[in-house]
Design goal:
This protein is mainly α and about 90 residues long. It has 4 helices and no strands.
Length: about 90
């Protein structure tokens, strides 16, 4: 039976990387104030389908709330995989 992969400690990786560069960990706004993450908008942003004004607003949410940052990272990963599979 295959052994399960060890789960990476991404928060630990980030902390180590920031410490190595001498940068403080990003401080986000209170998640209780965050609007619900809109996965469709994030996919459209990753595909560059938003107007500059819309993109600016969405980036504000990504910079302000950790939930939006993490969801955007996932959307980017999915988009890169899609492009790779399509040979783009």
């Amino acid at each position: 039976m295959p052994t399960p992969k060890k789960k990476r400690d991404y928060d630990g990786d980030v902390r180590a990387w920031l410490a190595k560069l001498g940068l403080p960990k990003r401080k986000y706004l209170d998640e209780a104030k965050a609007p619900e993450v809109d996965e469709d908008v994030l996919r459209r942003l990753a595909r560059q389908e938003l107007t500059p004004e819309e993109a600016h607003e969405v980036f504000g949410l990504i910079e302000s709330f950790e939930s939006w940052t993490r969801a955007f990272s996932r959307a980017l990963a999915v988009e890169f995989q899609r492009r790779e599979e399509q040979g783009l």
